[in-house]
Amino acid sequence: MTAVSQTPATESRHDWSRVEVRALFDLPFPVLLHRAGEVHRAHFDPSEVQVSTLLSIKTGGCPEDCGYCPQAARYHTGVEATKLMSTDDVLEKARQAKAAGASRFCMGAAWRSPKDRDIPKVAAMISEVKALGLETCATLGMLSGDQARALREAGLDYYNHNLDTAPEFYNQIIHTREVQDRLDTLSHVRDAGMKTCCGGIVGMGESRDQRAGLLQTLANLPAHPDSVPINRLVQVEGTPLAGTAELDPFEFVRTIAVARLLMPRSMVRLSAGRESMSDELQALCFLAGANSIFYGEKLLTTGNPDTERDMALFARLGLKPMQAVEQGTTVHADIVATDAASDCCAHSSCAA
Ligand code: SF4
After folding, report:
1. Taking residues 198-216, what's their average pLDDT?
2. What is the mean pLDDT of residues 21-34?
3. Nearest CA to ligand 1 atom 7
4. What average pLDDT does the structure give for the chain?
5. Please, is 328 exposed, middle or buried when counting C-beta atoms within 10 Å of its C-beta (0-12, 13-18, 19+)?
6. What EC number(s) has UniProt assigned to this enzyme (predicted)?
7. Which atom of ligand 1 approaches the CA of 64 most closely?
8. Pairing between strand 267-270 and 292-294?
9. What is the helix (H) or strand (E) element at residue 145, kind and residue range?
10. 187 to each of 87, 184, 222, how far by Cα in Å?
11. Strand 298-299 to strand 302-303: parallel, antiparallel, or no bridges (unpaired)?
């Protein structure tokens, strides 16, 4: 117990050691949830949950080899590659999202990185979505500094780019790019003045220490991500990670709680994998400090609980959707859109 930090709930740190993070993971379950709940209540109304959905603007056909991802062209998962959606079609989805109460609209494309010729097209989408009065978010893969600045100038508020897993486990999951590539993109995003959405995936066969390593790396970034999506692996037939041993659900809750403790002011989001979670497991996650969910029919290419089930769960738990924050004053990341058709773990729901 001596390694467990007594950091006050209001303090944000960027110097967590692995030993400290691991000690939090190892706390007795009720003690960990109690501490995480205290920190949650110090920074948020625990009755509010931010709801987000995600639109895939370009699905499948990705040249990367992320072992969990059905959008990688090299895996035979039945996901059909599509071209980049037209701006008109994206705008129609954005209007629907706004009419459904969305405040933010996230656009995901299954690219290793956008080509420079793609940037004006995406920039046009961003500008027009912004003109609807929505905040904008995108997840397009790796960005150069120039690309990040161009997207920012077009009005992009948030950029999603996940770390996926602990640095020492990364090369067992992805071989076509390095952790440093991801860190560089996050740096370009921050330098361009955008907010970051960055998390990872658990249940990929990593150890508890490696889960601690993922959260340690996220918390020690120069700025805590505004949103921290924690994905539970959705095993898709045809991907290398199909057949991985299931993660103990309590371990998933522990991961949420430790994320809340390390990044007290971030939105901790239940992302991919929620469809297979029981209502009771989701309730435990909310107790552990989760305060954001992806919402809608599809999370890229994998399923998501339907909206009726989500609203029924909210009603049973006395939760309410977090209201939109006035533009320009928000301090919390989040993403809202409509349905989606791809499952770019790497990008938005899991990890790009
Ligand atoms: S996670 Fe993203 S980068 Fe990785 S294969 Fe899937 S679409 Fe490509």
Report:
1. 98
2. 98
3. 110
4. 87
5. exposed
6. 2.8.1.6
7. 5
8. parallel
9. helix 145-154
10. 28, 5, 9
11. antiparallel
Q: What is the mean pLDDT of residues 277-288?
A: 97
> Looking at the predicted structure, is the pLDDT value of residue 7 above 70?
no
| CA gap 198, 227 in Å, rounded | 6
Q: Compute how many other C-beta atoms are within 10 angstroms of the C-beta atom of residue 14.
A: 12
Average pLDDT over residues 165-172: 97
Judged on CB neighbours under 10 Å (0-12, 13-18, 19+), 301 is buried
How many angstroms separate the CA atoms of 7 and 13, rounded? 9
Q: Given ligand 1 and candidates 68, 71, 201, which is best to mutate, with the most ligand atoms within 8 Å of its CB?
A: 71
> Does residue 288 carry a pLDDT above 90?
yes
Cβ 64 under 6 angstroms from ligand 1: yes
59-84 per-position pLDDT tens digit: 999 999 999 999 999 999 999 999 99
Q: How far is CA 215 from the centre of its chain?
A: 13
Task: Answer whether residue 303 shows pLDDT above 60.
Answer: no
Q: Which of 310, 296, 314, 328 is nearest to 106 (CA)?
A: 296
Give the C-alpha separation, 238 to 200, whole Å. 21
Distance CA 203, CA 255 (A): 11
Contact (Cβ atoms closer than 8 angstroms) between residue 259 and residue 215: yes
Q: How far apart are CA 219 and CA 51, in angstroms?
A: 23
Residue of 185, 257, 208, 254 whose CA lies nearest to 36: 257
The residue ranges of every structural domain in the chain are 33-321
User: If you compute the radius of gyration of the chain from its CA atoms, what whole number of angstroms results?
Assistant: 18
Q: Tell me, which fold does domain 33-321 have in CATH? A: TIM Barrel (3.20.20)
**How far, in Å, is the centroid of ligand 1 from the Cα of 39?**
33
Q: Where is the binding site, in residues?
A: 62, 66, 69, 106, 137, 197, 269
